[in-house]
Design a protein that fits this description.
This protein has 318 residues and is mainly alpha-helical. Among the domains are: 74 residues, Leucine-rich Repeat Variant; 68 residues, Leucine-rich Repeat Variant, CATH 1.25.10; 67 residues, Alpha Horseshoe (Leucine-rich Repeat Variant), CATH 1.25.10.10. It is elongated and about 65 Å long.
Length: 318
């Protein structure tokens, strides 16, 4: 009795192979692989693939173009072509493509992730988060994250926020937060602020601050300024950087105080650099004092920040 799981896996691979083959039919014709005594055109290709005949002209053609040789250097390019063809199928293809994200072949998973990003269907959000966080291949994870960030479905922020609130594991949380930050959607502000203010783990609060910087929404300023007093140095440092991304001048007095008093060298270095990026002359006094900081890195960043501020605020011409 046939194994249904193996049959489904074989079907997914055949789907990806056929989808990738469609734009290559003309090339195959040029090379003459379909000019023998076999059914012509796409029907013949489908017939050959279905029959799984390794001696067929179609299979020889597929091997030539890398589709059946997994180690062939051209195979990733063919997989990307397959992704484009699958994406053209649109939302009806999503369940089949989502299933392909678990295929043992990395190129199939890569093609599936890219196709889901192009289709942009919210049903792919959960599976893409899982692949980003847990796939054993870094390239597949990267492509899944890129695909996730391309989805602009109106429900995507709600889906990402729900994943974040489930608090499954660190990598899943990171993926959801970075995707929220890259979404540019004002609705992403609330779940990220919630994580920044209340998550139990320092690193997750730091990631929330980073995501708010990516979001570049000025409304995040108050939450990030409050995070400058977080007990964890990594959170204070990332919050300072995010305020620099926002160009938040209201943060200048707080950053100046951090530069003077924070016990973490890394946080003081970040504060100096951010003050230079913001470019407010109100920071000159604190930066000048930081030239006497006991740490050489702080002194160097303070000197660089002073140059940046003076360049952004040249004296008026007489």
């Amino acid at each position: 009795m046939p194994n249904p799981e193996l049959a489904a896996g074989s079907r997914r691979k055949r789907l990806l192979l056929v989808a990738g083959l469609a734009p290559l039919v003309v090339l195959l014709g040029v090379w003459g692989y379909l000019r023998c005594q076999r059914p012509s055109g796409v029907e013949g290709v489908l017939s050959d693939i279905h029959q799984q005949n390794p001696d067929s002209m179609t299979h020889r053609a597929l091997r030539h173009f890398g589709l059946l040789e997994r180690d062939d250097p051209e195979y990733p390019e063919i997989a990307r072509t397959a992704a484009g063809t699958l994406a053209a199928m649109g939302p009806p293809a999503v369940p089949e493509i989502v299933a392909a994200l678990k295929d043992p072949d990395r190129s199939v998973r890569m093609a599936a992730a890219e196709a889901l990003g192009r289709i942009g269907d919210n049903r792919a959000v959960g599976p893409l988060i899982d692949v980003t966080a847990h796939d054993s291949d870094p390239l597949v994870s990267h492509l899944a994250f890129e695909a996730l960030c391309k989805i602009r479905d109106p429900e995507v922020v709600a889906t990402l926020a729900a994943v974040l609130r489930e608090d499954k594991d660190y990598l899943t949380n990171w993926t959801a937060m970075m995707a929220l930050g890259k979404s540019g959607d004002p609705a992403a502000l609330a779940p990220l602020q919630e994580a920044l203010a209340g998550h139990a783990h320092d690193k997750c609060r730091s990631d929330a601050a980073m995501a708010l910087g990516l979001l570049k929404n000025p409304a995040a300023g108050p939450a990030l300024r409050a995070a400058l007093k977080d007990p964890a140095a990594c959170v204070r440092r990332t919050a300072a950087n995010a305020l620099g991304e926002l160009g938040d001048r209201e943060a200048v007095p707080l950053l100046a105080e951090i530069l003077r008093k924070d016990d973490s060298t890394n946080v003081r270095v970040e504060a100096a650099g951010v003050l230079g990026r913001i470019g407010d002359p109100a920071a000159i006094e604190a930066l000048t004092a930081a030239l006497q900081d006991p740490d050489s890195a702080v002194r160097a960043w303070a000197e660089s920040a002073l140059k940046d501020i003076r360049a952004k605020n040249p004296p008026p011409k007489p």
